[in-house]
Amino acid sequence: MIHSLFLVNASGDIFLEKHWKSVVSRSVCDYFFEAQERATEPENVPPVIPTPHHYLINVLRHRIYFVAVIQSEVPPLFVIEFLHRVVDTFQDYFGVCTEAAIKDNVVVVYELLEEMLDNGFPLATESNILKELIKPPTILRTVVNTITGSTNVGEQLPTGQLSVVPWRRTGVKYTNNEAYFDVVEEIDAIIDKSGSTITAEIQGVIDACVKLTGMPDLTLSFMNPRLLDDVSFHPCVRFKRWEAERILSFIPPDGNFRLLSYHVSSQNLVAIPVYVKHNITFREGSSQGRFELTLGPKQTMGKAVESVLVTSQLPRGVLNTNLTPSQGTYTFDPVTKLLSWDVGKINPQKLPSLKGSMCLQAGASKPDENPTINIQFKIQQMAISGLKVNRLDMYGEKYKPFKGIKYMTKAGKFQVRT
Amino acid sequence: MTDSKYFTTTKKGEIFELKAELNSDKKEKKKEAVKKVIASMTVGKDVSALFPDVVNCMQTDNLELKKLVYLYLMNYAKSQPDMAIMAVNTFVKDCEDPNPLIRALAVRTMGCIRVDKITEYLCEPLRKCLKDEDPYVRKTAAVCVAKLHDINAQLVEDQGFLDTLKDLISDSNPMVVANAVAALSEIAESHPNSNLLDLNPQTINKLLTALNECTEWGQIFILDCLANYTPRDDRESQSICERVTPRLSHANSAVVLSAVKVLMKFMEMLPKDLDYYGTLLKKLAPPLVTLLSAEPELQYVALRNINLIVQKRPEILKHEMKVFFVKYNDPIYVKLEKLDIMIRLASQANIAQVLAELKEYATEVDVDFVRKAVRAIGRCAIKVEQSAERCVSTLLDLIQTKVNYVVQEAIVVIKDIFRKYPNKYESVIATLCENLDSLDEPEARAAMIWIVGEYAERIDNADELLESFLEGFHDESTQVQLQLLTAIVKLFLKKPTETQELVQQVLSLATQDSDNPDLRDRGYIYWRLLSTDPVAAKEVVLAEKPLISEETDLIEPTLLEELICHIGTLASVYHKPPSAFVEGSRGVQHKRLPARAGSGESTDSPDVSQSVGGATEAAPTVIPSQGDLLGDLLNLDLAPPAAGPTVPPSMQLGAMDLLGGGLDSLMGDDSEAMGAGLGSTPAVMPTSLGAPPVVGGGLGDLFDLGGSVGMPAGAYVPPKSVWLPAMKAKGLEISGTFARRSGVIQMELSLTNKAMSVMTDFAIQFNRNSFGLAPAGPLQVLTPLSPNQTIEVSLPLSTSGPVMKMEPLNNLQVAVKNNIDVFYFSCQYPISLLFVEDGKMERQVFLATWKDIPNDNEAQFVIKDCHLNSDAASSKLQGSNIFTIAKRTVDNQDMLYQSIKLTNGIWVLTELRVQGGNPSYTDLELSVKCRASEVSQFVYQCYELVLKN
């Protein structure tokens, strides 16, 4: 099981360590630093690093490495999942997960880590339960605590801890009862030079914000549930009911949670909402290169494509660029060779374009590699897979809640090769 | 107001100030002080001095304060075991608290205090908590058993906690079940054959019920445990699979992968024509694909596992090729894994797509990745025969790009393609030859030379090409030299007329001008072959080569099977059996996939049926790993193969029987003998009683000589002296001494930090020395050394290190490293350190040896002012392993004859003369005889040291 945890910041300092079993010397991290040095980019550090007596499993988030030390055979995914859960919890508690935030709240961090893991076994990782055990720090509470001498540690066993619905506490009360669901879909796609789709898939999630009094029992049904053949549920969802009727039936946790994530694979036809026309050329023997890029909407069911951002890693041989955008702003960093064009909204009547020339190193041969164009965008009020919620019903409680569903489509890893 | 304020006090009397605050009457102040202490602890400052003050804060009804104190305790109890006892009472009291949260907290914390003395007190409260009415307490107690087992395994067994833990598997609460399973699995890991998790259909049923209701982490433990079970038949197997499949839709990827493991294993038992089998195969694909949309670290582990799954059951993911396409901003470790899986999935149906992708990757920026991609094209050609032509033309396109490393890599793989499909693609040789000049990597040059040699008859200017390489023969790497030698010999055999000169040149270069034995030997072999029997040479050198195949990249089937049983573990990430690398897992059991029911299946998967069917028949293609072989042998020896694990107990029983029977019969005999003896004349005893003086004297003598065997005298340990002053070592002061304690040589060090900053990461090394002294373990400085702190370390030494004679003989040069720098010093050890315990010579041998050593080797010394009589001296010396063989008294002068043996086997013989009668004459005379006379001086020094202290 998990032996120890070290937090390492971007400059390679260990700024926090926690041991759940015997103490493991910090020097074990030397092996991690070695691997870090070998990796060219921070994100290229291998996730599992063997050392003579231990294994180091790390995740990188918010520019902090969370390095877990293990000594015996442990499922690595278990460790990685747990580390991500730790980060999520910190973020949940402190708003951000930065070195400063962790140092500012070091005692709460220690209490949390102690509560999340016992002897390397996960103990309480549900945010609801943790928050009952250890109250998140707020300015108001700090002031009140100093005056009244009360503590931010719960004195009672959280009620949900052992019940059949461990994710929900009892005695929840709201004056406004509301349940909101966000259907968010991300398209991952690779488009080749000629504009045809090599692979495209959709990662969808339904995030919920449920603030309902008592013990509500909800059902959510879809217009087209057949789309969802590859799904991962929050533990609250009754799997049998889904298998039989394709209806989501659940007692929700209190507050924000991810109800469902799903995956629409490349075998289904995935609509591609934007297209790119590009012409990036270098000529042998010339120190100039041509750059032309035009974006346009495609299969968006009439919805606007917004917050468009185009980035591209230009070849190392490019010294500078001289481009004119028809809208938005563009920047080029001559050191990292990163071109970034903040387009904004695509107007179908007047397509945005970026045109001009690139300066190459004089005398150098023409660059070997073709830059890949990375596109980010958002489309409100539409789920690109066509998923639609049919209705939401509540049982078990008498009041009438406010209900709402929002749809959004975003670009995930959306890449166009040139 | 944030916690960072706790870090800011760096004033001189920080500890003192904290002490005062901890003893304050005000609760709030106390709590703040404990928080400061915890904050200091997290950054590695040593606040152990505050132990009693912090522990005093433990008895409080403020839960936060209690938790903080517990945090402190867990960290420092080990370094202050005596004081930790102070906390026991509060723990025991808390275990009775009406609030289950406090009961659980107490039992949890007690388990984390890794002090032997405390564990004894823990047993009773733990027993109660394991039967607590509140499931929260029970589940915490279950984990505590595992903790306790880690500290003191024997205690846990003696107290019967393991049985209680087994009972918890049937607990009504799923969380308790999950934790009991987790604890048992962890304990079982250190006892591979203990059969702790005795799985039968009833327990399996309980586990499956708990699986639906416990937390995600609990599900992982239960699934991993289920994977160890072998179902009785295919129906049971199917019903377990049906109940596990819903876990594939879990949001936690570790749960998903553990479920995949169970399914992959149990699927093996299902008949392939069963409908359910097909359904299951279809169900496995989507969750695996979903894993690839997670964070990169998760993707990496998932990909490593998918790599195994694809090799075992390619049908699962055969339609999912596209999800493995590489995105340009994937981390490199994900890219490389995806590439590997793409090749494994490549088939005639999708090869066009794969090749187009690989060609795309070959234009990426990352050189390593590009090379791998080019290599992948070659592997595709070898794997999918129909695609070979397309692969070759893709490679030719890549060569046209003239990107140096792409060209070189392409030539290396084209060589492999030639070896797979001989006489098919030689038309491309011309293009390859154009790029000869740009090759600068040995592997590519060697590949090119191989091609030229192999197809010499089709290349008009082969001799010119090879000759051009020959010019810089000595600057080439061995790989290229060997290849060039072979290629020219091939050329000669094919075109003997024009190339005689060339072959002579290369043979002489290889045999006369080279220092490399491999090259020289190969040169000679060719030379002799060519000069004696050119026909034979032709047969040898131009023999038909075996075709290479794709199988060479596949994991060997027995290993693959074992790895499939370990999906989701570290073993699956490294593609090595767990026995190969997991520390502390003594005698790991090799897991095997279960056999499928129905005899018709055996032809379908020969490796599986073979592994279960019996050890006698070995399929020729499978090379069993050593572990398997051993297992097989064991099975052969024991008549019923199933009896494997039960053998040790039965053997023990046998031993018991023997003893019991033996004792009984002995007793019987005895009583008979006694009965008989009573009647007859008393035998031996009375006679010896009849002559007390003789025996008594003998005994006394023996005692005198045997000296203080039972006495605590022990070896003399000189006081510590400063070896490395702080001035010379940036604030680190090292003083130390040497001791020999019950046969173990120890270097005892005091490390003092006289600098302003914390010191960490200590390590030590010795230079070679006269007696091969070397550290037997690492320098154990576990906690960082804070300013003005001194730490005592004792370092066990071995005498098996490298040997080099030092001047003086007992000089030892030491290097100590810490986070600041490396420091060197030298010290001298008393040679008595090396006197071994079995250094007592036989009298006769002593006499013979004494005579045998030439008189030139005898050295005389005088030990002045020593007020000891011979007996006292003898016993004192005995403590330092200097043994008295005999004593002679001549003219009131006692002569002690003594022997010493050094760790390296050198014997030293001495004669010590003590003036028995005359107290005013206090000088002792010592003569030392030894074959290695250099040590005499140091032996004398030891005598002086020992006798005078």
UniProtKB/TrEMBL annotation, chain A:
Keywords: Cytoplasmic vesicle, Golgi apparatus, Membrane, Protein transport, Transport. SUPFAM superfamilies: Second domain of Mu2 adaptin subunit (ap50) of ap2 adaptor, SNARE-like. It holds the Pfam family Adap_comp_sub. Its main location: membrane. It is a peripheral membrane protein. One of its GO terms (biological process) is vesicle-mediated transport. It comes from the Eukaryota. It is found in: Cytoplasmic vesicle membrane; Golgi apparatus. GO terms for cellular component: clathrin adaptor complex; cytoplasmic vesicle membrane; Golgi apparatus. Residues 176-417 form the MHD domain. Belongs to the adaptor complexes medium subunit family. This is AP-3 complex subunit mu-2. The gene is ap3m2.
TrEMBL record, chain B:
It is a peripheral membrane protein. SMART domains: Alpha_adaptinC2 (SM00809), ARM (SM00185), B2-adapt-app_C (SM01020). Transmembrane segments: none annotated. Residues 835-948 form the Beta-adaptin appendage C-terminal subdomain domain. Residues 600-613 have a biased composition (Polar residues). Residues 584-615 are annotated as: Disordered. InterPro entries: AP_beta, AP_complex_bsu_1_2_4, ARM-like, ARM-type_fold, Armadillo, B-adaptin_app_sub_C, Clathrin/coatomer_adapt-like_N, Clathrin_a/b/g-adaptin_app_Ig. GO terms for biological process: intracellular protein transport; vesicle-mediated transport. Gene3D superfamilies: 2.60.40.1150, Leucine-rich Repeat Variant (1.25.10.10), TATA-Binding Protein (3.30.310.10). One of its GO terms (molecular function) is clathrin binding. Keywords: Acetylation, Membrane, Protein transport, Transport. Residues 716-826 form the Clathrin adaptor alpha/beta/gamma-adaptin appendage Ig-like subdomain domain. It comes from the Eukaryota. This is AP complex subunit beta. It comes from Chanos chanos.
